Amino acid sequence: MPSIALYYPWMHFQDDNWLKLALLTWGRIVRMRPGRVEDRDRELVRQLRAETDFIVEAAPSPTVLTTVAEKFTEIIDTDPHRIVERYGLRDSFREEFYPSPHDPRYSTDWLGYEPPVPQGTWDMVRSVYMLRMHTGGNDSKMATDLSEKLVGMGLAEPSGGPWVLMHPKLGSIYLAVLTDVMARSEMLSPATDDPRIHKAVGALDQLTNLLLDDHARVLAVEHAESAYMHVALRTVIEPEKLAEVPVAKLIRFREAHRDELAAFHEHVASLTTELQAIAEVENLEVASAHLKSLYESETRPQLNELRRALRAQGIESSAGTLVQKVNLNAAAGTLLGSVAAAGGQLAVASAAVAVTLVPYIAGKVEARRQQVGASPVAYLLAADRELSGRTLLGALQRRTHGR
Predict the structure, then answer these.
(1) Which residue of 9, 47, 141, 207 lies most exposed, with the fewest beta carbons within 10 A?
(2) 399 pLDDT exceeds 50?
(3) 220 Cβ partners below 8 Å, 6+ apart?
C-alpha cells in the first residue's frame, strides 16, 4: 500500500483524534488547500506543520484537472436537463433542505451532503448553504473550462476572485472524483475523517451513478489497509487514551519507530486478499466486524507471541523503560560467586558485579532487540507500551486488585 495518504474532501482536518491515528499510520499525508485560503487549522495541525514533514500541501496537476473535467462534461452533455434539475442554483433550491422525511432522496444517510464551515458559505438570498470551489491560479481544484461551463448552465455561480459556489451535493461528488483521479495519478491513498462524504476510491468509474442514481453503491470502507491499521492501533491504544497523548510524544514515537512501522505495513500488505474482500462490504458495522475478526485471527496472535517470547527472556518494556528480571541462577557463579569470593567486601563485590552482571544484562537486551526487530507487529507492541498509558506498575496494581 502507498505510504502517503491524500486527505479529502475538505481544506482543513475535521477530527484531531483521527489525525493522530493518521500520524501513526502514514508516512505523510497530502491535502489540497489553496495557499490564499484563510488558515483555520487547529493547534494540533499547526504543530505538525511546524515540527514535522507529515502534512504536505499540494495542488492537482493540470492533467488531473483535465481528466476530471472531461468526464464531468461527457456526463453533463448526455443529459443536461436532468443534471440542471437536480443541481441547478434555482429559487426552489432551498426546498431541498426541508425535504419530506418520506423522500428517500434526502435521507440523513445520504453521504457527501454538506461542506464544513471553512469550505462553504451561507447564501442569505436562498437561505441555503453552498460549497465554495477554488477554480483559479496555480492551486486550482477545477479546470477553467469546466467552471465556466457550470456557471453558464446555472450549476455554479461566481463568488468573488477565483471561487465559484455550487450545490453541496454536486460539489462533494466533484471533490470525491477529483481525489480519486489525483490518488491514481500520484500513487496516493485517499483518506477522510468525514463519514458523510462519498467514498473517493472508484468515484471516477461510477460518476454517472453518483450524479444521477439516488441509490448509488457506496462502500463502507474507503481504504481497507489503513482502516485495518486503525483497528489495530485502537485496540492497543484506546481512543480516550490517544486523546490524552501530547502531540510532541507522538512525534517522538513516530521518529523512533519508523522501521517498525514499515515492517507493520508489510504485514498488512500480506493480508491483501482478505482486505480486498472486506473493501467490497457496503454496511459499515459489518465491515468493522470483519476487520476486527481479521485482527483477532491474524495479528493479535503474533503480538501475543512476541510478548510471550520477551517474557520468556525475562525482559519487559514499559513506557519506553527496559525492566530486567535477573535470573540469578542463570548468572550462576557470577553475581553470587563474586560476592562470596570477595569475602563479603561490598566494594570489591560491586566491582565484580559490574564485570559479571552488566554483560549478562547487555546480552539479554541485545536478544530482545533482535526478537523485536524480527517481528512484523513490533510497532503495535511499541504503541501499547509507550502510548497506551499502561505501565508495568499499573499492570501489577490491576492484578493486585483483581482487574
Answers:
(1) 47
(2) no
(3) 281, 282, 283, 284, 286, 287, 288
